[in-house]
Amino acid sequence: MTVSVTIRTYLLLFSAVLCLASAVLFIQISEVPPLGLSMWRLGLAGIVLAPLAFHEYRRHRPNVDHIPLRLAVLPGVVFAAHLVSWVIGARQTPTANASLIANMAPIALPWLLYVIAKERVRRTEWIGTGIVLAGLLVLVAGDVHLSAETAQGDLLCFGSMLFLALYLALARQRSPQFPGFALYVVPLYLTGALACGVFMVATGEPFLPVAGQWKWVVALTFIPTVLGHSLLNYAMKRMRGQVVAVASQTQFIFAGTAAYFLFGATPALTFYPASVLAIVGTLFILRRS
Q: Tens of pLDDT along 11-30?
C-alpha cells in the first residue's frame, strides 16, 4: 500500500511538471496584460475546483471547521505576485535571462523551508540540486546577457523567483493542515485573483481580454493552473519541499520538446546535455528520498 501511494505521488508530481511546462508557451503567445491574465486564470481555476473543495468540506467537516481559511490568504497573494512579476519581467528581458533567474528557486527555497516549515534540506538534496542547476547553466550560460537595458526585467524575474520560493515554502508549511488539497488551493486561487483585481482597478488595466485572447486564458487556467499548480501543491503536501522544487526544474525539457513539435523550434545543442544533467539530478534526489 505504501509503495503504490508513493508511486502515485511521484506520477502526480511529474504530471504537474508536464502541465507547468506549458505555461511559458501560452504566455509567449498571449497578448493579455499581466494583471488580467493572472486574475482570470486564478479566478477561473478557483471556480472550476470549487465543487471539489465543497465535496472535501462535506467529507471532512469535523476536521475542517477549526482550520482558519486565512492560512491560504498569504500564499494566494504571494502566488499572484509571482505570476504578475514573471509575465512582466519575462517580456522585458531575453528568454535565457528569465529562464536562468526563474530556475534559481531551489537555491532560495532551502532557507525559507527551514525558517517557515522547519524542514532542513538533506545533503543528498543539495547534491541533486547542484546537478540540476549545472544543467540549467549549460542550457543558457552562452545566451545570458546582463545589461542596463535588461536590468529592470532581470530584477522583476528575480523578485518573481523569490515569490515562487516563498509560495512553495508556505505550501509545505500550510497545505498539510488541510485534509483535502482543494480546500487549500481554492481559497488560495481566489485570494490571488482578488489581489490582481484590486491592482487592476488601481492601474486602470482593462478587465476583459479581447475576444481572440480568451483561448489562451482558458488554456492557462486548465493546464498549468487547475492541473499544474494544484498537483504541485498536492505534492508539497505529501513530499519534501526541496524534492518537489528540484523536480519542477525539469520543465524546460517538456517545454523545449513541445516547442519543437508545435512550432518547429529546434533546440540548441546545449539542450541535450542540460536535459541529461537535469534528469540525473532529479532521479538522484528521488532515489535517495
A: 999 999 999 988 877 887 88
Q: How much is the pLDDT for 4?
A: 47
Q: Are 219 and 146 in contact (CB under 8 A)?
A: no
Cβ burial 62-87 (10 Å sphere, 16+ → b, else e): eebeebeeebbbebbbbbbbbbbbbb
CB 176 within 8 A of CB 122: no
Query: pTM value?
Result: 0.89
Give the helix/strand (H/E) hosting 53: helix 34-59
- pLDDT tens for 96-146 read 677 777 778 999 999 999 999 999 999 999 999 999 999 888 887 766 666
80 is written with which cell numbers? Answer: 499572484
Q: Where are the alpha helices (DSSP H) in 91-213?
A: 95-102, 105-112, 123-140, 151-174, 181-203
> Distance (Å, rounded) from C-alpha 268 to C-alpha 99?
14
The overall longest dimension of the chain from CA atoms, in Å, is 56
The CA distance from 251 to 232, in Å, is 12
For residue 166, what pLDDT band results from cuts at 50, 70 and 90?
very high
